[in-house]
């Protein structure tokens, strides 16, 4: 007899949703995580009466009504709308790319004027079918916006020239010819009141949880602990990098508590020029209008990843996607292991897509 139905590796969003649904269906789950805390990258911690997003700013947004209703069972969301600003040298612009951005950039007022400038800049370049991020960005917003707001930021974030990056990354951002600074097009958006960690705590109720426990050590002594494994760590590591290592971008945060009420007046400020070493500064209190007399900011630095570092962003270029495909094919042979989440499927997933994928996976499993 196995002690548990499922060993779930990773107490992040994917693992926690899977555990919750499986437990509800009467299955027993052991959730392990190598970190000392639950919640994976959405972990938040209260300091100075401010919920600090320890692994980077997280805004929940989705158009998937079932996912929105699902997460709302576990907490109430506030009405936060993400509206970052971008600083390029001594100029300040609204994001995403919209009429506020264009008006500031070209001193114009109407959508027709903005569209005409972009069309003229695009015509000069003669791009018909964008092959990479640079060509995609240039053909969407023209040269000025690309040079000031995209090129430096993207190269800092990904550590590669925009010509070597896939076009889909830039398509994450809305482009609109209205005066609307909402960073997302989704129907639903907000920040959980009380932080994300509380959601994951609720999801994990009824499961056994072991923290500071690395799967590869744990499994040596506990090979028979569960009938099946749900693995949300890196897939290539699971297979001992037998086909080679997938590449990731790592992120590092420098967090500072400052004795002032309001440091930058916005939750997210991007620094888009290449010369500023960080990509953005997050001021955590503005995600939820905290009335703390102090403020906490995090400068976000993007860096090269090497085996052993925490992986953050998959680098979905052709080389890595082909390599992932080999691991994926290999994983089909392991019928007792379910791979999931950002790391297990090597996908640039937002939280709502992770919840959706976890619900689909657990339903398929329990059907
Ligand atoms: P994770 O949260 O990474 O969880 C995986 C867990 O597995 C980790 O806790 C890890 O410690 C554990 N683990 C790995 N290997 C092992 C092992 N060998 N043994 C034991 N445990 C192991 N999404 C949005 O929707 N909105 C946003 O604003 C947003 N902002 C983001 C900002 C940043 C900087 C980043 C990096 C991501 C952002 N995301 C955002 C994406 C979001 O973080 C992910 O979609 C989500 O957290 C993924 O959940 P997961 O469970 O797949 O992975
Ligand atoms: N981006 C940019 N300038 C900005 C913000 C974003 O060029 O000021 C580009 C960059 O290439 C980034 C992509 O848009 O990787 C997607 O941005 P998003 O904010 O979705 O990234 P994430 O929140 O996942 O870090």
Could you walk me through the main structural features you see in this protein, from its secondary elements to its overall organization?
With 367 residues, the protein is α/β, with parallel strands linked by helices. The chain has two domains: 4-76 and 187-247 and 315-366, NAD(P)-binding Rossmann-like Domain (Rossmann fold, 3-Layer(aba) Sandwich), CATH 3.40.50.720; 85-169, no CATH class. It is 33% helix and 20% strand. The protein is built from eleven helices and 16 strands. The protein has helices at 13-24, 65-72, 99-106, 111-125, 133-158, 197-203, 215-221, 235-238, 318-331, 341-344, 351-366, and strands at residues 4-9, 29-32, 44-47, 50-53, 60-62, 85-88, 91-94, 188-190, 208-210, 226-231, 248-258, 268-271, 280-283, 295-304, 313-314, 337-339. Strands 7-6-12-13-14-11-15 form a seven-stranded mixed sheet. The chain has a five-stranded parallel sheet with strand order 9-2-1-10-16, with helices on one face. A hairpin with a 2-residue loop joins strand 3 and strand 4. The protein is globular, with a radius of gyration of 22 Å. The two termini are 22 Å apart. The model has no long low-confidence stretch (mean pLDDT 97). Uridine-5'-diphosphate (UDP) binds at residues 86, 95, 149-150, 153-154, 157, 169-170, 172-173, 270, 272.
> Which series of helices and strands comes N to C?
EHEEEEHEEHHHEHEHEHEEEEEHEHH
**What is the name of the CATH topology of the largest domain?**
Rossmann fold
Task: Kindly estimate the percentage of residues that lie in beta strands according to DSSP.
Answer: 15-25%
Widest sheet: strand ordering? 7-6-12-13-14-11-15
- According to CATH, the homologous superfamily of the largest domain is NAD(P)-binding Rossmann-like Domain
Bound molecules: flavin-adenine dinucleotide, uridine-5'-diphosphate
Structural class by secondary-structure content: alpha/beta
Average pLDDT figure? 97
State the major sheet.
7 strands, mixed
């Amino acid at each position: 007899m196995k002690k548990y139905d499922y060993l779930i590796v990773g107490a992040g969003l994917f693992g926690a949703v899977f555990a919750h649904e499986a437990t509800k269906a009467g299955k027993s789950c052991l959730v392990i995580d190598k970190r000392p805390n639950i919640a994976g990258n959405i972990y938040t911690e209260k300091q100075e009466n401010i919920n600090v997003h320890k692994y980077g700013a997280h805004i929940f947004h989705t158009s998937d009504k079932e996912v929105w209703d699902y997460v709302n069972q576990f907490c109430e969301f506030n009405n936060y709308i993400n509206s970052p600003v971008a600083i390029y040298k001594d100029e300040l612009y609204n994001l995403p790319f919209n009429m506020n951005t264009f008006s500031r950039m070209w001193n114009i007022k109407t959508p027709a004027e903005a569209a005409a400038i972009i069309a003229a800049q695009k015509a000069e370049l003669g791009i018909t079918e964008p092959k990479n991020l640079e060509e995609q960005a240039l053909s969407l917003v023209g040269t000025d916006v690309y040079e000031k707001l995209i090129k430096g930021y993207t190269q800092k974030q990904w550590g590669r020239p925009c010509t070597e990056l896939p076009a889909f990354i830039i398509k994450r951002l809305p482009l609109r010819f209205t005066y609307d600074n909402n960073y997302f097009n989704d129907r639903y958006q907000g920040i959980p009141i009380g932080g994300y960690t509380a959601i994951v705590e609720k999801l994990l109720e009824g499961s056994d949880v072991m923290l500071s426990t690395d799967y590869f050590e744990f499994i040596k002594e506990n090979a028979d602990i569960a009938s099946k494994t749900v693995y949300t760590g890196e897939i290539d590591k699971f297979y001992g990098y037998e086909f080679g290592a997938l590449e990731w971008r790592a992120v590092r945060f420098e967090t500072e508590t400052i004795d002032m009420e309001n440091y930058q007046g916005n939750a997210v400020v991007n620094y888009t020029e290449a010369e500023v070493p960080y990509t953005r500064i997050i001021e955590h209190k503005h995600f939820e209008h905290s009335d703390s007399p102090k403020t906490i900011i995090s400068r976000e630095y993007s860096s090269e990843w090497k085996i052993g570092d925490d992986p953050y962003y998959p680098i979905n270029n052709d080389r890595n996607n082909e390599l992932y495909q080999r691991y994926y094919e290999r994983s089909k042979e392991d019928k007792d292991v379910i791979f999931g989440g950002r790391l297990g499927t090597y996908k640039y997933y937002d939280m709502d897509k992770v919840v959706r994928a976890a619900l689909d996976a657990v339903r398929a499993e329990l059907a």
